[in-house]
Design goal:
This protein has three domains: about 35 residues; about 40 residues; about 30 residues, no CATH class. Helix content is about 80%, strand content about 0%.
Length: about 120
């Protein structure tokens, strides 16, 4: 936290405050310089635009592969949950609807006396 503001009482107080401010400023500049060097040291090295483009393309491909894998895993998980809980799939419902329609046709084709 910043020091409270005090008004100097003499020229010596002003000189002391200026010296303190200069010292704090130098410390801040040294800290900023050190942080900048650390950031530069940790930054990935790029030799050329072509290399940067290649890295970007590889990153895009990796993201696409991860999305495809995610979709694959989610589909597999949904199928397992549906089977575990005994829910009917759309394909199974369509097959059952076809069977029911066929049975309804067979029943309606029977003579009325046999149906009762």
């Amino acid at each position: 936290m910043a020091d409270p503001i005090t008004f100097p009482r003499s020229l010596d107080d002003v000189r002391a405050q200026v010296e303190r401010i200069r010292s704090e400023g130098e410390k801040l500049v040294d800290r900023l310089r050190s942080d900048a060097k650390d950031l530069i040291a940790r930054a990935p090295k790029v030799v050329s635009i072509d290399e940067a483009r290649k890295r970007a393309e590889e990153a895009v491909k990796t993201v696409q592969d991860l999305r495809a894998r995610r979709t694959e895993l989610l589909t597999k998980l949904a199928t397992q949950v549906i089977n575990l809980l005994g829910f009917a799939t759309a394909d199974r419902v369509a097959k059952l609807e076809t069977r029911i329609a066929n049975l309804e046709q067979r029943v309606s084709s029977l003579p009325k006396e046999q149906a009762a």
